[in-house]
Structure formats: C-alpha cells, structure tokens
Specification:
It is built from 3 helices and 6 strands; from the N terminus they run H-E-E-E-H-E-H-E-E. It is an alpha/beta fold and 146 residues long.
Length: 146
C-alpha cells in the first residue's frame, strides 16, 4: 500500500528579498564612502562670497606677492618686516590692542605659498604662549568678496 503525502514542500529558493538586501547595502556603502572622503574642496582662495565684515581691525598682517611681511602698515610708505622680527612687531602691536575680540587679520596675496602662512601661524603660536587661554589671539584670513 502506497501512502501519498499531501504536504509537499517546495524546494525553490526565493531570491526577491535577497536583491532588496543587496541594494540597501550598496546604498549604505555608497553614502558612507562619500562622507569619508569628500572631494568638493575649493582651492580658489582668497575669494569669498561672504560679506561679513569685522568691526575692529587693530592688528593686521600683510604678506605681499614678494613674500614681505607688514604689521599694521600705514599707507604705501610702510617698510617690510623681516621674518625674524615678526614676533617683536606683533608683541608691540598687542600692547596697543584694546579690542575685545583678540584676532589678527591676515591679508595674504593669493600667490603666496601656504608655507609662508604657516610660518606666520608659528609666530602667532609663540606669541600666544605669553597669554592666558582667554586672552590668546586667533588668526582670521581676509578674503576678497565677489
């Protein structure tokens, strides 16, 4: 006597949900990989669309295209300051600075290499060692508006 079972199991694999899962994983990795390494870096400094103006400009440092430094220049008759004398010149400028916002505005020509800007930041770090944390100066990069 042959007994027939009425409950036969289907052995086929349903891959519809698997493709949804793979698609979601693909989207997840695409989004996280773009967040890790953004490639939208604008290197056309010092132009800026921001029209923000600083109220007080007590200490200004200029770096021209010939890599000459000027601290608080007064017209076209100003003399460049050698790099070795930047720290004493900035110390003298901080004595006369009575502003609440302790900042040094850097106006650098767009052809000036970054190493000259970093050298100025090193001098600023030396300057800030003599001040308390709340009294330390910050550097602000001035840009040209459109």
């Amino acid at each position: 006597m042959n007994i027939e079972l009425h409950n036969k199991q289907n052995v086929q694999f349903n891959s519809a949900s698997m493709s949804d899962l793979v698609f979601l994983l693909l989207i997840f990795f695409m989004i996280t990989s773009t967040l890790v390494a953004p490639n939208a870096i604008n290197l056309l400094l010092p132009k800026s669309n921001s029209g923000k103006q600083l109220a007080s400009r007590n200490i200004e440092v200029y770096i021209d295209a010939d890599k000459n430094y000027y601290v608080n220049p007064e017209g076209s008759q100003s003399q460049p300051i050698p790099y070795e004398e930047l720290l004493p010149a900035l110390q003298a400028a901080t004595v006369n600075d009575n502003s609440e916002q302790k900042s040094i505005i850097l106006r650098a020509d767009k052809s000036v290499p970054v190493e000259n800007v970093v050298a100025l930041m090193d001098v600023l770090n030396e300057l800030n060692e003599q001040f308390e944390e709340a009294e330390r100066y910050k550097i602000v990069l001035a840009t040209e508006g459109k």
